[in-house]
Every structure is written in C-alpha cells, then in structure tokens.
Amino acid sequence: MGILDGKRVLITGVITDASIAFSVARLAQEEGAQVVLTGFGRLSLVNRVAAHLPKPAPVIELDVTNQEHLAALPDRIREHVDGLDGVVHSIAFGPPDALGGNFLSTPWDSVATAVHVSAFSYKSLAIATAPLFGERGGAIVGLDFDAQVAWPGYDWMGVAKAALESTSRYLARDLGPKGIRSNLISAGPVKTMAANSIPGFEAFEGVWDTRAPIGWDMKDPEPAARGVIALLSDWFPKTTGEVVHVDGGVHAMGA
Question: Which of 136, 192, 218, 222 has the highest CB neighbour number within 10 Å of its CB?
Fold first, then answer.
C-alpha cells in the first residue's frame, strides 16, 4: 500500500522522461495514485512519454492561459476520474528576452507572459480544479526555483517565481477553508528541456557542486519529485503556504 493509495492526481508539465513532472507521475503511480496528465502544443510527444509510465495515463490538452481550456478542464478530467485529490503545477515559461541578462531592457509584454504562464497560471489551475476536490480536500503542489535571491541570467523568470511563491501563500489562505493545501517544492537545478532554454544555466552546476552540503545531482529529478509526492500525501495534513527546499541545502548556505 503506497502513500497515495486511491488518490486521483492531475499532473502538468510532463514533456520528457527527464522532467521532474515525469518522475512525479511515475512515483505517484507506484504509490497507488490514478494519474491524469496535461500537455500543450506537443500532445503526441506527451503521449509518447506517458507510454513510459508504469501504467497508461490519459493526456488532456491544456493551455493554462486559455480561459476556454480552463473552463472545460473539469469535464475533461471527469472523463477519466470522478474527482481529484491532488494537482501538480509544473509549468513555467519566459520569452528569450526575459532571460539572459536583459533585465533592464525587457519589455512589459515579455514580462507579462512570464508572470502569466509561470505564476498566474498556478491560481488559474487551482480555481479550475477546485470543484473536483471532495469534502476531504487535498493538495495543490507547484514546482519552484528559489526566489529569495537574484540568479545570473534568470532575470524576469526569477521575478515570476517570486510571484509564484506569493500566489501560493494567498491560495493557501483562500482555499484552506475548503481543505485544499497549497505548497511549493523549491527544487535545485535539474537538466531538463526547460533548463536548456535558460542562458547560462551551466553556471548553476558549479554553485551546487561547491555549496550543497549533502550533494546534488543535476541529472536526477527524483529527489524533487519525492518532495512533491510527500506534499500530495496525507502525511502533511496541516502544512500549507509553505516552500519546501529540495536543493541539497544550498538555500541555507552563505558564501
């Protein structure tokens, strides 16, 4: 019997089997959950990746910036499961000119896109799926990258992640009475398709090599995924509005 036995979980952001979201989906199934995936723009790719999971998982098309998609989401989910106990938000995007050292010159349109997709969508997804949670409530978990400091090249995506952290706290406040918890996993850097789009990402490797007191493997998404699974489970029944760091301890170290 797994710690997610009988739970129904919606997971976004599965693009390749190297992604944290894929590891979350695999572990969720291994721990007893029914899993439904979402994808956008590359559904054939998501379906191919989903075939690598221990069990078949349906894939729903979802653009989190499209209000029609969000409005239809509950009915689309009900085609596969009769409700939800957990939602995983693993969605982030910033236009090229919002990263890579362009902080002072990035236009508002690009900033707005980064904030909309990476932070506001967390609220949008939560509101769209909230009616599917039963009286017992459940958990919404998002994937974060430490927004306490400024990172080289991360620029407006760092601002968007700070907005994500604040959004999660306000959702914790407003969804708490419904029994729905909102928490984030602040993961250390993992070499994923999304990471490859960040200019200067390779600079992070040296930071984690020298500053993670218990070590960090940028090729291993499972530690962060395990954190997500824990927060989806019933083992954190009174934890909400929290940012849990799964980064080898780098966030707690000084120079």
Answer: 192
Segment 136-153 mean pLDDT: 95
- Which member of 55, 161, 178, 219 is catalytic? 161
pTM of the model: 0.95
Residue written as token pair 């407003």: 174
- 55 as an active site residue: the answer is no
Q: Decide if pLDDT at 197 tops 90.
A: no
- Ordered structural domains, the chain, with CATH: 8-252 (3.40.50.720)
Residue 154 annotated among the catalytic residues of the structure = yes
Give the residue-averaged pLDDT of 189-201: 68
Q: Which of 154, 178, 219, 238 is catalytic?
A: 154
